[in-house]
Write a structure and sequence with these properties.
- It is a single chain.
- This protein is of the alpha/beta class.
- It is built from 10 helices and 12 strands.
- The chain folds into 2 domains: 2-75 and 171-283, HUPs (Rossmann fold); 90-169, HUPs (Rossmann fold, 3-Layer(aba) Sandwich).
- The chain is 35% helix and 17% strand.
- The strands form 5 sheets. A 3-stranded parallel β-sheet has the order 1-2-3.
- Strand 1, helix 1 (14-29) and strand 2 form a beta-alpha-beta unit.
- The two termini are 35 Å apart.
- The structure holds glutamic acid.
């Protein structure tokens, strides 16, 4: 069971399409289900109409998902239930610190053993003392993080009241029965936090596969600013061919002019995760998505 979990903060771009295609093909290659989940838990960052636009683009590209799209904005009560469990188990604690007081960097543990006198709780953080997590990513290999040293006690409920991505994603992957997480390597660094939460909450640990992210020659991730408008103005197969090439799936040149069904029937049979480059980022030419 795989999934694609975009944040509806803008249109789908080349970078997010790589994650969509990789997760879709990994699921379909093995006869699995592929879900789409809208990660609109961060309401202040959600852009009106973006979710609809992303789904329309997926459809236009022939990426057909199973079942209904899950919206995180509908699931607040479920996330709060998990938060409560962490608090009751003393695995998480209320924190009064403001971002300004902390000034960035690893959390110094100020409220770990209780709020300072006269302070009100703002956020909720998870204990990280002595936690070292090792994951075996199917592309990137072994990735080890000392949570206490590298991350610190991390936020699961934010100061503005919203549930943090780290908690929402773990609750949803478990609730939806996701067994294979395929996504961009920009999230590799978040994975140990998610595995820690899975263990605390007694959830199964999915297999992870982090795909390289596309960067331009300035080293910036291809994003809304650099590739979003372009994918919608291109013939889908042309863009999909470039995605497969980017993931080193060696698409035959003539496939770039195929019809969508022919492209997908080739791609579903040809997908081989072991060919994906073991890199967290790959530079693509600046003109990659110039008008055809
Ligand atoms: N919503 C996240 C993003 O768009 C992805 C989360 C995930 O795949 O776990 O970056």
């Amino acid at each position: 069971m795989g999934r694609f979990a975009p944040s509806p903060t803008g249109p789908l771009h080349f970078g997010s399409l790589v994650a969509a295609v990789g997760s879709y093909l990994e699921a379909r290659r093995h006869g699995g289900t592929w879900l789409v989940r809208m990660e609109d838990v961060d309401e202040p960052r959600t852009v009106a109409g973006a979710a609809h636009g992303i789904l329309a683009t997926l459809e236009r590209f022939g990426l057909a998902w199973d079942g209904l799209v899950l919206y995180q904005s509908d699931r607040s009560a479920i996330y709060h239930g998990a938060l409560q469990r962490l608090l009751e188990g003393r695995q998480a604690f209320p924190c009064a610190c403001t971002r300004k007081e902390l000034g960035g960097g690893v959390y110094p543990g100020t409220c770990r053993f209780g709020l300072p006198r006269g302070r009100e709780p703002r956020s909720v953080r998870v204990h990280s003392t002595g936690v070292r997590i090792s994951i075996r990513d199917r592309v990137q290999g072994t990735f080890i993080q000392d949570l206490e040293r590298d991350v610190g006690d991390f936020v699961v409920k934010r100061g503005d009241g919203y549930i943090a991505y780290q908690l929402a994603v773990v609750v949803d992957d478990a609730a939806q029965g996701v067994t294979h997480v395929v996504r961009g390597a920009d999230l590799l660094d978040s994975t140990p936090r998610q595995v820690h939460l899975q263990r605390l909450l007694g959830f199964p640990e999915p297999a992870y596969l982090h795909l390289p992210v596309a960067i331009n020659s300035w080293g910036n991730k291809l994003s809304k600013q650099t590739g979003a408008a372009a994918i919608d103005h291109h013939p889908p197969v042309n863009v999909l061919w470039k995605v497969m090439d980017f993931l080193n799936q060696q698409p035959p040149p003539e496939l770039a002019r195929a019809e969508l069904p022919a492209f997908w029937s080739w791609a579903r049979g040809a997908w081989d995760a072991s060919r994906v480059p073991r890199m967290t980022a790959i530079q693509v030419p600046n003109g990659l998505l110039d008008p055809p």
